[in-house]
């Protein structure tokens, strides 16, 4: 963990897609109508356990309380033919590299960090996500979480309104 003030920076395994995070089943109770039950998959539970274990190994001992800012960098796996792709299309060779959607990655990450790095994902006031060019390292996600003072949000909003 790079600890800058109270910022937490973690390098985590590539997240499970939100599409594989939840599953549904039909429950048929003996004394009532059938209903659909949605649950977190065993794959998602294993990812959450791994994230908590890594955060602890990085030195995270308690969640940040209050508002936070999250910065996410998603690094997909670099395919073996990346060099030929980059010769054909130097500026967009990685456009069709297999990667989960950022919004799917963010949901899984926030749920996995909940209670570990911050108390609840409702406290994520600001979020910046970027899909990075595959760099040859392992597929991964780098997450930086830092506290956000309540006034900082209001001041940023004013600056944006003035600029418009």
Describe the 3D structure.
The protein is of the alpha+beta class and 164 residues long. The chain has one domain (8-163): 60s Ribosomal Protein L30, Chain: A. Helices cover 32% and strands 26% of the residues. The chain has helices at residues 18-21, 42-57, 82-88, 102-113, 150-163; strands at 8-13, 22-27, 35-40, 68-75, 124-131, 140-147. It has a four-stranded mixed beta sheet with strand order 1-6-4-5, with helices on one face. The longest helix has 16 residues, at 42-57. The radius of gyration is 19 Å and the shape is globular.
List keywords for this structure.
single chain; alpha+beta; two-stranded antiparallel sheet; 5 helices; globular; disordered N terminus
If helices are DSSP runs of H or I spanning 4 or more residues, what is the number of helices?
5
- How do the SSEs run, as a string of H and E? EHEEHEHHEEH
Number of strands: 6
Overall residue-averaged pLDDT value: 89
Q: How does the overall form come out from the CA principal axes?
A: globular
